[in-house]
Specification:
Blueprint (H helix, E strand, L loop, with lengths): L9 E2 L5 E2 L11 H10 L13 H14 L4 H9 L12 H4 L3 H18 L7 H18 L26 H14 L4
Antiparallel strand pairs: 1-2
Helix pairs in contact: 1-7, 2-3, 2-6, 2-7, 3-6
Length: 185
Amino acid sequence: MQKTDSFDGILTFTGTPFRPWDPDPDNIFLTDIAHALSLQNRWNGHTRLPVCVAEHSLNVLKYVTHRDESKAIRIQALLHDATEAYLPDLTSPVKHRMSQFQEMEAKVWDAICIRFGIETEMRGIVEEADREVFYYEYHTSMNRSDDIEIPVPKQPFTSVHSPATRTPHQWKHEFMKECSRLGIE
């Protein structure tokens, strides 16, 4: 690779150059995903305690695992927010107003799916799990408003661990452990 004064893209934790608008599946690594997701807070950080994206992903995996879903669905559940390792975790109301961002996110998701051999179409159970964990996070981590009505989870749910007892390094380790258990390389 020719050296240049500037690079038009991002440099990941492993030192890998990455262009989210033109993602190369060969430049996607689990270490980068686990590292970035363990350091990113959900809800733009507006929670009583930190809730990182890695924890959220592990909880979505836990939800589908309790439903005894296939290995392919479990992998998709764990990686469903992996794009956020390369793009910011925008809140849904903001994201839905940014079509260019959504297009870029779709390209990164496609590259992640190619890299790890998973379906690009998000399975219904993964969407359900994501929504239920969202409800759980809201009711356990947010200062609630009487002006907003968020449903309670349909099924009783407990987090994989108490967020107050985990550091980003521990969430990264837990995420990588689940990747290994699922055979994701």
